[in-house]
Each structure stands twice: as C-alpha cells, then as structure tokens.
Amino acid sequence: MNKSVEIKNLDLEFGAVKVLQNLNLDIGKGEFLVLLGSSGCGKSTLLNCIAGLLDVTAGQIHINDKNVTWAEPSERGIGMVFQSYALYPQMNVEGNLSFGLKNAKLPKDEIAKRIKRASEILQIEPLLKRKPAALSGGQRQRVAIGRALVRDVDVFLFDEPLSNLDAKLRADLRVEIKRLHQNLGNTMVYVTHDQIEAMTLADRIAIMRGGQIMQLDSPEEIYGRPVNKYVAGFIGSPSMNFLEGRIEGDVFLVGDLAIPLAGYEFASGNAVSGEASLGIRPEHVVTGELVGNAPFQIDIDVSLIEPTGSDTLVDCEVAGHPFRVRMDGQAKIKVGERLRLGLDLSKASLFDKTSELRL
C-alpha cells in the first residue's frame, strides 16, 4: 500500500490516564478512512494528534513519508474541518476562504483561483458576498469545508463535521463529502460516532475502543465478519441480537433450544465447545413465505412494534433473551400475535463467552 499517513506505536497520556495505547495505523494515498467509536474512545484525540493539535507521549506520525511527530500543524500538509464551523462572523464567505491564504502571503491571482475552484466544487458561488449570519447550518459547514479545500493539501481531516446538523442536512452533506472525495482523490480521515456515516463514506473503518483499534477493515467485512462481540454490537442499526448459551458438539444450546451448527465454519477450522454468544442481525431473521427455507425455525409472541416507514421493527423474546426482527414496512402485524421466525445461520456469528472473540 502506498501510504499517505503512517502512525507507529503511538501513546498519549493525560497524567495517569492512557488515552491512546501503542496504536499503529497505515492510511493509503487517496483512501477515505473513518475513525468510528463511542464517546471517549480516542477517535478525536487520534485525529488531533495527526493534525498536531496534541503532543504525543510516545511513537511517531509520518505524513507523505515525512516525520511530522513534532511539526507544527501548518507544516504538516493537512486541512482540517471541525465540528463547529468556527467562521469569522465579521468577514463574508470570500473573506473566510481567503484569510489563511493571505496570511500565507499567496499571490492575489492564486488566491482567487483557489477560491473559484473550491466554491464551484462546493456550489457556494452565490454565497461568496454573504456573512456567516446570513447562511444556514449546511451552508456554513460547506464554507468550513471550503476553507480546508483552498489550502490545496494532500490530507483532509474531518472531526464530526455533520453532528451539529439536522438529519436531512446530514444526509445531504454526507453525499456531497463522498462526491468531493471521488472528485479530488485526496486522502481523507473522518471522525464520527454515526455508523451510517461510517458505512456509507468509508473505504475502510477503524473501530476504536479504549484508545485502541478493535478492527480495521472494509465496511462490508466489519458488518459481515466482526472480530469480536463489541464490534458486532456496535455496527448495525438496530444492533445485533445476542443469545447466550453453550456449544456442545454441533449444536448451540440456549434454554430449551438446540440450534444446529453442522456445516458452518469456525475461524480456527476446528469445532469448539463451551459457553458462547450467538449473534444474529435483525435483518437476517426471515418471516412469511421465506421461513420454509430457513434451517432453524422458532415461534415467538410479538411484544412491541416500531414502524419506521421502510421497515417495521418487531420486538419479542427468544429463550428468555430480548430479540428484534426487521420486517418489511408494509407487514401487517399486531402486538400479541404469534409469529414464526427463520434464522439465517449462514450470516450468524459465534463469540467466545470469556474473550468475546469471534469463533
């Protein structure tokens, strides 16, 4: 892989608190990498270390084969977009875009050229003479992205840039950021706690927890083959169902149920036994006419229904465990109704009870 950003054995400590621990990460040229995790996992801290806004305790950071571990942010060849727009209120859009370039003493014609290019890409040409107070939230965030864009750098860093916007604007700007990456081909590192953003934008996702990377892979691989129970439960909306039980021979025992495992592959290549968790996503549970094709079927009582438009989420219990099913939005279903489910075990995951690693 042709590397754009290389992080080696990175540690960051605030007093006695270890925020990042022996972290290693390679980001390819032109890659869109998303740092994903819950609050406090270290994703924004890692981004700030790459940007040079935080001094690391140990380790090295290389950008385009240059060691920038102790370099100033302005010397790293990065453009950063923050969660808050941080626009200068007294300047119009054009002034906000040109401010950093003027400080860098670029020629006027070069500044004009860069502003024209950025405003065309982000479709903010009609806004250039307006001040931030006259812009909507989405327009302000476009200007903030434009301010990074005019710097003409190889690496763009985004720190939860859409979290202050409403759902519709988030979806619209998500599409624009993806299109921006396709058009520019620059390396982009994007921090979010929103898994929909991560899944739709990323070439690869780094899922973080406790200052460490749990899994680094494509969205498809993380969704389909999570390395541990934490990743499995974190990715997916609604989240994965877990049944706690025991593997004995070629069956998984949970309560009075014996779920067949014969024919399914274990990561080690050898069958295992002992306490484990069986995880299956709500969308991998089949109902209606498709149930007859499922290798394992069970009857449940519907306890709650959540219509979402395109889908209907059905809550129930399986062997005493809360269980959720995603059905078609047009499904005619009532609370208290008895329903037959089929489990698509080819898409299920087994996790060791103690280590929580994928079996």
From TrEMBL:
The keyword ATP-binding is assigned to this record: yes
Keywords: ATP-binding, Nucleotide-binding, Transport
Alphabetized GO MF terms: ABC-type transporter activity; ATP binding; ATP hydrolysis activity
Residues covered by the ABC transporter domain: 5-235
Matches recorded under SUPFAM superfamilies: MOP-like (SSF50331), P-loop containing nucleoside triphosphate hydrolases (SSF52540)
InterPro entries in alphabetical order: AAA+_ATPase, ABC_transporter-like_ATP-bd, ABC_transporter-like_CS, ABC_transpr_MalK-like, ABC_transpr_MalK/UgpC-like, Mo/tungstate-bd_C_term_dom, NA-bd_OB-fold, OB_MalK-like
One biological process term in Gene Ontology: carbohydrate transport
Source species, domain of life: Bacteria
Positions in coiled-coil regions: none
Entry annotated with the keyword ATP-binding: yes
Pfam families per record: ABC_tran (PF00005), OB_MalK (PF17912)
GO cellular component terms, semicolon-separated: ATP-binding cassette (ABC) transporter complex, substrate-binding subunit-containing
Family: Belongs to the ABC transporter superfamily.
Name of the protein in question: Carbohydrate ABC transporter ATP-binding protein (CUT1 family)
Organism: Shimia abyssi
